[in-house]
Amino acid sequence: MSSQHLELRQALWNWREEAATIKFGSEMVRTFGPYLLMPDETIERIIACGQVFKVKSASHLTKETSWLKEWVVEFGTDILAIVHAYFPLPTSSAS
Question: Fewest CB atoms less than 10 Å from the CB: which of 16, 36, 52, 53?
Fold first, then answer.
């Protein structure tokens, strides 16, 4: 596992904790965990797809993770920004 992978995982865990607390409240997160918002399996899928540039947009995020579409609409931009900070999308070069 690369350091980028580990750093992205930590960034997504941090984001999930904060976003879940905002969405559900700290009591719900203490009781049920931030997994309410996004399970670990979804985070791992996002990382796997991010490494191979498969999550370029919110629609790709929905397709690749099967995460609730309404949550992709609400949080997709944040997630994509985090993923692309660690695995920037390749730029096409005009030759």
Answer: 52
58 contacts 72 by C-beta, under 8 angstroms: yes
From residue 28, give the alpha-carbon distance in Å to each of 13, 21, 25.
17, 8, 6
pLDDT digits (tens, 9 = 90+) for 17-30: 999 999 999 999 99
Which tokens belong to 64? 């690749």
Q: Which residues of 62-90 are buried (b: 16+ CB within 10 A; e: fewer)?
A: bebbebeeebbeebbeebbebbeebbeee
Asked whether the beta carbons of 75 and 36 are under 8 A apart, the reply is no
DSSP conformation class of 90: P
Give the pTM: 0.91
- Specify burial of residue 12 (Cβ count, 10 A radius: 0-12, 13-18, 19+): buried
Please provide the size of the chain in residues. 95
Q: What average pLDDT is seen over the chain? A: 94
